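Subject: for your reference before the review

Hello V.,

The reviewers asked for a structural picture of the protein, and I figured it would be easier to keep everything in one thread rather than splitting it across files. Below is the amino acid sequence we used in the manuscript, unchanged from the supplementary table.
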Amino acid sequence: MGAISQERLLKVILAPVISEKSTRVADKQNQVVFRVLPDATKQEIGAAVASLFRVEVTGVQVLNVKGKVKRSGRVTGRRNNWKKAYVTLKPGQDIDFAAGL
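And here is what came back from the structure prediction:
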């Protein structure tokens, strides 16, 4: 497989996941959590984080999150499934999301 296009790398990462767990993981394991495209691969995610945030990535773990069933009165609906990526950074490196605000 050839090199991943820059256009694809810009689309792979959708948003950072900001939660209590993601904050705890960032402090203890030096990992950052992202919401990514459902068809994204580990290689694409690692390359996208490295190029966008100028950090060195040592590992990527991905998991598929099932959409929750929600109801509004009698009507039940289902949220979409999505994919989450835990990206491990090289020790001493960090991504500061608050700096972009």
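For the response letter, the relevant points are probably these. The chain has one domain: 6-90. The chain is about 30% helix and 35% strand.

Happy to draft the paragraph if you're swamped.

O.
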